[in-house]
Amino acid sequence: MNEVSDHLDYGLSALFIGFNPSLRSGEVGHHYANPRNNFWRILHQSGLTPRLYDASEDGELLKLGYGFTNIVARPTRGAEDITRAEYDEGRVVLKDKLEKYQPHIACFVGKGVYTEFSRRPRAGWGFQPEPVLQEVREFVAPSSSGLVRMKMDDIVSIYRQLSCSIREDKDPRTG
């Protein structure tokens, strides 16, 4: 199974960081490609994207200032299939990517992704008060997996906080 290519650039508004690609994403080579994953609907409903994008258009989001990567590159059926060694290696690789590209915001798509990266036992939703990397704002958002038991409106509301912050950062009157 192929790894899914990162979509990275310098100075992104937000870099979305998942656990790892799904098997479907590995098959088609695009992020969040499993039809049961709500990622693209969440981005649109929260105001992060002007329209509903398809996973096959993931590279187009670089034009909006959004990039994609994962803490582990290997596609699996689920996050429970990721080994401790893969997390340990992925944490180092991810930190290097964040230091190199310095997105304004690192959005961790799932609390578990953030706790694996930060090695902290817990995290709240939204911006983290004590980021691992001082030069990058760290935002924790719910997983977009269809298995998440949170109401879609609640998930979208958290992503809307990210959307509002990005818009404020781009508004010349605020800065």
From TrEMBL:
Uracil-DNA glycosylase-like domain span: 12-152
Annotated GO MF terms: pyrimidine-specific mismatch base pair DNA N-glycosylase activity; uracil DNA N-glycosylase activity
Keywords, ordered alphabetically: DNA damage, DNA repair, Hydrolase
GO biological process: base-excision repair, AP site formation
Highest rank taxon of the organism: Bacteria
Protein name per Swiss-Prot or TrEMBL: Mismatch-specific DNA-glycosylase
Organism listed in the record: Paenibacillus lemnae
